[in-house]
Every structure is written in structure tokens, then in C-alpha cells.
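ESCALATION

Customer reports they have been waiting on this structure for their group meeting. Please prioritize. Original submission:
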Amino acid sequence: MGSNKQIDNEAYYERVISASLKLSFVAFLFILSFLILEPFIMMVLWGIIIAVGIYPIFRKLSSALGNKDKLASTLITLTALVIIIVPSILLLDSTIESVQNIADKYNEGTLTIPPPDEDVADWPLVGKPIYETWNLASTNLESALKKFAPQIKEYGSKIVNAVAGLGGTIILTIISIIIAGVLLLKSESSEKTAQKVFKFLIGKDGEEFTDLAGKTISSVVQGVLGIAVVQSVAAGILMLIFGIPAAGLWALIVLLLAIIQLPPTLILLPVAIYGFSIMDTTPAIIFLILSMVVSVADTFLKPLFLGRGVDVPMLVILLGAIGGMIAFGIMGLFVGAVVLALAYKVFMALINDEIL
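Update from on-call: job pushed to the front of the queue and completed.
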């Protein structure tokens, strides 16, 4: 009797040890796989988001071409690459040229700052310090640089890092677009997998929730990211046309502001004011008007794209996108919007006794 119990205990411990070793081995493989794939995770995630965002366009184009998915995917991918690469090259070239020009003039001792208009001092709150700083820079640049050396050192490195990061972001976007083009060809199998996951977690409404997640991502791509890109590219081209220095850098800052739902006016208005010191009155006024049009464009475009085709209020998606970005960074734009949209649908279903 005792010997049988001892044998059972030994067999039990052997099974526990065997299961533990197997689980440890599987965990070890997953950890190694994650470390190997970690450099590509962000590109793949962006590829998935872009693919979901442009999927409706892909389906319409494929149907127009006689259900030729490969041709439709290739055309969309090439078009997206041209839209990204051409403006990026122009903006980067403008930024590098402007910085190089300023550095050359400074080294030659010919760099001058135009004096401020007297009206600048009358601006509310910030007018006087801006006028004094600007006036000092225009009359004695060396003294101004020494006075603000700590601030220049602190923020100068950040600006340089931002410009350097712009190149990396462009490369990441290009690779992600290519990945998205490949994923579009596997869209049906991916959709079925997502439906199975949601059906397992939620039940009979799995297909509806899969559709909601896809439409929410598409809505955020168009209504937040798409509009932000449009505003930044328009601002960059506008500054290039009117000869504003470092147009690429300002366009990047406009993009970041637009993504986090802050008005591009924060950058474009000071740039437009600066334009009055380097341009004649008429072009400066035209630049100011066009800058304001670019700044307020999202007011008219957002209601058209954000939440379109999604059975969730636009405010829910917007709050999810902004809150998600604050919590998780740029990827949180999509994570937050999807989570809040799904939570809203679950909450409404619970109220209507459609779940449980």
C-alpha cells in the first residue's frame, strides 16, 4: 500500500517536472523569438494599421480592375510610396539647405536677423519679451547667443534629434507601406482569424466586433493621421513656396501638433509673423491667410472622416485616440480608439440585454 502511494507520488512529480520543462522551453522560444523580431515589430504593426486603413480603397480598386488583387495592391503601394517619398525629399532637402546656409553665414560673419516691427511689443503677455529678444538678436547676435546659450544648448540638441528622427520615421513609413501592400493580399484570411478570436471572446457578435475594430482603425487613419499628414504636407509646401527657412522642420512640428490634436496655428502663426520681416506686405498677407486655412482645415475635414461608417459616436473615437496616445504613445492612437469603441459597444449591448 505504502509502496504504491510512493510510486504514484514519484509519477506525479515526474509529470510536474516534465510539464514544467516543456512550458519553460516554450516560454524560452517565445522570448527568443520576441528578441529576434523586436526590431521589426513596430514596422509590422504600422503595416497592419495602414493595411486596415486603406482596405476599403483596395477593395474598390480591385473590383474596378476586375478583382485583380495583386495589381490593385501594387498600384496602391506605389502611389503611397510616391506620396510619402517626394514631399519628404523636398522637405528634408529644404531643412538641410536652410541649416547649412545659416551655418555658412554665421561662420562668415554675414548672418543678420531683421529687426522686429514696433507692433510686436504691443502683443498681449508675450509681446515685450519677444520684442526685446528679437531686437537684441538683430542688433547684436553674438550677445543674444551668449545670453541664451543654455537654452540653445538644451533645445538645439532636441531639434537636431528631431530632424535626425525624421529620416528614420520616413524609412519606417516606407517599409510599413510595403508590408501593408503584402498584407492586403492576405486580408481575407486575416479577417477570418480576427473573427474567430472575437467570437471566442464575445460569442455570436464576434464578426460585428471584428468589423467595428477594422472600421475604427480606418476612421482614425483617415480622420486623425490622414488629416495631420495633409496639414503638415500642405504647410511644408506653403513654406517652401514662400521661402521660409527650415520648412521641413516646421512641417514635422506641424505634423506632431496635428496628431496630438493641438492647432498647427501654434507654429504657423509665429512663422507667418516672421514672414512679414522677410517678405513684402502682399505675399506676407497671402502666406498668413493660407497658413490659417491650413490650420483650421481639420475643423471641416474631421467630421467628414472621423467616425464615418462606424456605429460609434465620433467623440468616443476621438477621446479614445487622444487618451490612447497620451497613455501609450503614437500607437495608442489606434489602440485607444479601438478599445474605447469596443467598450462602448459592449456597454450598449449590456444595457440592451444583448450580452449575458
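Sent to customer with the following note: The longest helix spans residues 2-64.
Escalation resolved.
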